[in-house]
From TrEMBL:
Presence of keyword rRNA-binding: no
PANTHER family associated with the record: 2-PHOSPHO-L-LACTATE GUANYLYLTRANSFERASE
Domain of life per record: Bacteria
Identification of the protein by name: 2-phospho-L-lactate guanylyltransferase
Keywords: GTP-binding, Nucleotide-binding, Nucleotidyltransferase, Transferase
Listed InterPro entries: CofC, Nucleotide-diphossugar_trans
NCBIfam families: F420_cofC
Length: 183
């Protein structure tokens, strides 16, 4: 069984703008790059992952793997396009998960292998930080505000995978405080 991981990444423009009160633009950009590499490094350690695709408006300068150009239609339509191109089992992971481990990813894949769909919420249970779906599973991507609830409304039979590695994404000053407390 081989899964394809898609990692959406913002490569141009201002990154992590909600952290601007604490970090300069250069610091936010460097943080984004470090977290992206952490997520990709974790994915390379998961035997079930056969392919990693970065979904971005431009290919990251230090990335030599598969890249899919983000056409600017919004994350959900772009992920739908990626799903059509992959035509197989798919896992979507955000690139800002500093505590993610291979065991977290494996747990998400195993849950999806059982039920067809597994969702990993953020620590507030509002966002979706990881989503794994088998090729035959129907789901309209609903990333954005309240995505965890919106994904679950479509598929109440999905498995929910709550793990520390998925719980903390870095978007706000409170997230940075939570990361410092977790380490």
């Amino acid at each position: 069984m081989s899964w394809t991981a898609v990692v959406p990444l913002k490569t141009s423009g201002e990154r992590k703008s909600r952290l601007a009160a604490l970090l300069s633009a250069e610091e936010r950009s460097a943080l984004s790059v470090r977290m992206f590499h952490h997520v990709v490094d974790v994915l390379t350690q998961v035997p079930a992952i056969g392919r990693i695709i970065v979904l971005a408006d431009e290919c990251p300068a230090d990335w030599d793997g598969d890249w899919m150009a983000d056409g600017g239609r919004g994350l959900n339509p772009e992920l739908e396009q990626a799903r059509k191109l992959v035509a197989g089992d798919l896992i979507v992971l955000h690139a800002d998960l500093p505590l993610l481990t291979p065991e977290d990813v494996t747990a998400l894949i195993e849950a999806a292998s059982e039920s067809g769909l597994a969702i990993a919420p953020d620590r507030h249970r509002t966002g979706t930080n990881g989503l794994a779906l088998k090729a035959a599973t129907r789901l309209e991507f609903s990333f954005g505000a309240d995505s965890f609830r919106l994904h679950r409304l479509q598929r109440s039979d999905c498995m929910v995978v709550e793990r520390d590695g998925f719980a903390l994404d870095l978007d706000t000053p409170d997230d940075l405080k939570a990361l410092a407390a977790a380490r």
